[in-house]
Amino acid sequence: MDKKTEKRFSLPGLGGLTIIDKYILKRYLATFGVMLLLFIPIGIVIDVSEKIDKMLENKIPFLDIAFYYYNFTIYFANSLFPIFLFLSIIWFTSKLANNTEIIAILGSGISFARFLRPYIIGASIVSILVLLMGFFLVPSASEEFNNFRYTYLKGGGKEAMHGDNTDVYRQINDHEFIYVNSFNPETKMAFNFSLEKFKKEQLMSKMTASRIKWNPEDSTYTLYDYTKRTVGAMGDKIEKAPEKKFRFAFDLEDLTPLVYIAETLSLSELNAFIEKERKRGSSNINVYLVVLYKKYSVPVSAFILTIIAVSVSAMKRRGGMGTNLAIGIAIAFAFVFFDKIFGTIAEKSSFSPLVAVWLPNIFFGILAIYLLRNAKR
């Protein structure tokens, strides 16, 4: 855009934003907000229709239900924000194209790359908002949302929160390993307990008990049918007792963390938790890493989807807005599909979580570059 055109469309006091920039940016943010306001109530209605029977059966207080849907709104909006953003851009950009406003803007001497500037500013605002929500607001909302679901709505109740509680084997530090045949998180009691201590891959001692129980009054554990074998150079030492109390530097709940624990932690807590689980040799480490990497990859997708949406919808087509929306919906659901597929592959296999989380952005980033080049022509 030449200087005369820039001056003609500029607005004073807006840090270099022109009238066109402000017009498009307003439409970008307003349409995205309206899209959220339209789809979130629909999501709530569908969720209520599916769960109303269990809510009435369990006689859940109204305030608990209201709080659940407050957290549901945050959880739902964060999960599906790429679709909402993509469709909103397709919608208002198609209207601009159908009204020949884009032709007028480009005909005034503004390049297509310059035309994209307010879209990139809008994507930056949305990305920062999503990033901050993912770090601070979504974890607490996810915790309350999932607690409600597992307490009142899902089969298995609270016990299902901890996933598989049988044949649990964990490393609790560099030298000690715990095994329990089964664990009840409600009573904080485990059965067929053993604690092995190693030094340079050599067994130093092994403690066993038919049952171990947490004592909240004095923060100790009671071991029933206790036996301890200490390996010695001149012979092993055996210690037995029908019942004995100990203080351990671990929590029985650490044996089987909540299945959704990673979603409920802030960024610093999640990093510390992953490091602790890595030292323990957790088999769920990939699940936690996927959650961590998505906190960074999802905001980046706002830029990629914005460029794709503008490139697809800036052209006036014979089918009008309907054609653009059909293309947009197909691309948006393809993005979400690949995002979920690669995330699941990383969680269930040895595939790198970092690569799995960023592959959809890489694939659709290449698509964005290709579509942008075509749109410029």
From TrEMBL:
For the keyword Membrane, the answer is yes
Q: Which InterPro entries does this entry report, sorted A to Z?
A: LptG/LptF_permease
Q: Name one GO biological process term.
A: lipopolysaccharide transport
Residues annotated as coiled-coil are none
Listed GO cellular component terms?
ATP-binding cassette (ABC) transporter complex
Compartments, record wording: Cell membrane
How does this protein sit in the membrane? Multi-pass membrane protein
Signal sequence coordinates: none
- The primary site where this protein sits is membrane
Q: A Pfam family in this protein?
A: LptF_LptG
Which UniProt keyword terms apply here? Answer: Cell membrane, Membrane, Transmembrane, Transmembrane helix
TM regions (residue ranges): 28-48, 68-94, 115-138, 296-314, 321-338, 350-372
PANTHER family (alphabetical)? PERMEASE, YJGP_YJGQ FAMILY, SLR0882 PROTEIN-RELATED
> What is the protein name for this chain?
Lipopolysaccharide export system permease protein LptG
Q: What is the scientific name of the source organism?
A: Flavobacterium succinicans
User: Taxonomically, what lineage is the organism?
Assistant: Bacteria, Pseudomonadati, Bacteroidota, Flavobacteriia, Flavobacteriales
Q: Which gene encodes it?
A: lptG
